[in-house]
UniProtKB/TrEMBL annotation:
<keyword id="KW-1133">Transmembrane helix</keyword>
<dbReference type="GO" id="GO:0030964">
    <property type="term" value="C:NADH dehydrogenase complex"/>
</dbReference>
<comment type="function">
    <text>NDH-1 shuttles electrons from NADH, via FMN and iron-sulfur (Fe-S) centers, to quinones in the respiratory chain.</text>
</comment>
<protein>
    <recommendedName>
        <fullName>NADH-quinone oxidoreductase subunit</fullName>
        <ecNumber>7.1.1.-</ecNumber>
    </recommendedName>
</protein>
<dbReference type="GO" id="GO:0048038">
    <property type="term" value="F:quinone binding"/>
</dbReference>
<keyword id="KW-0813">Transport</keyword>
<dbReference type="GO" id="GO:0008137">
    <property type="term" value="F:NADH dehydrogenase (ubiquinone) activity"/>
</dbReference>
<dbReference type="Pfam" id="PF00507">
    <property type="entry name" value="Oxidored_q4"/>
</dbReference>
<dbReference type="InterPro" id="IPR000440">
    <property type="entry name" value="NADH_UbQ/plastoQ_OxRdtase_su3"/>
</dbReference>
<comment type="similarity">
    <text>Belongs to the complex I subunit 3 family.</text>
</comment>
<feature type="transmembrane region" description="Helical">
    <location>
        <begin position="48"/>
        <end position="72"/>
    </location>
</feature>
<feature type="transmembrane region" description="Helical">
    <location>
        <begin position="79"/>
        <end position="97"/>
    </location>
</feature>
<keyword id="KW-0812">Transmembrane</keyword>
<keyword id="KW-0472">Membrane</keyword>
<keyword id="KW-0874">Quinone</keyword>
<keyword id="KW-0520">NAD</keyword>
<dbReference type="InterPro" id="IPR038430">
    <property type="entry name" value="NDAH_ubi_oxred_su3_sf"/>
</dbReference>
Length: 105
């Protein structure tokens, strides 16, 4: 009996007569603003460099969590490996800084 009631309720909710008919009700939520540009618009190249740095540091955090778990068991070897990993990331950050990707002009 409950299965029949649930199916009838789902059928009523899924029927086209219950769908919104006006455009403001059917439009996707965009944070309260109207869509003024197409989704495939071009972005400035500075966003790509910042995105690459963001991804690099996200990957750093992804590797540091398991490292923190095995650090006690591995000892100094794990510390040296993480130091080398952070040094490589630091070189990337310094290079980006020298190239001026943090300046928003």
């Amino acid at each position: 009996m409950a299965l029949i009631f649930a199916m009838a309720l789902l059928g009523q909710l899924a029927s086209p007569s219950s769908w919104p008919t006006s455009w403001p009700q059917r439009a996707p939520f965009l944070g309260g603003g109207d869509q003024t540009v197409h989704a495939w618009q071009r972005y400035h190249v500075r966003y790509y460099s910042m995105t690459l740095l963001f991804i690099a540091f996200e990957m750093e955090m992804m590797f540091m969590y398991p490292w923190a778990v095995v650090f006690v068991a591995e000892g100094m070897k794990a510390m040296v490996e993480m130091g080398m990993f952070l040094a490589i990331l630091s070189v990337g950050i310094v290079y980006g800084w020298r190239e001026g990707i943090f300046r928003w002009q």
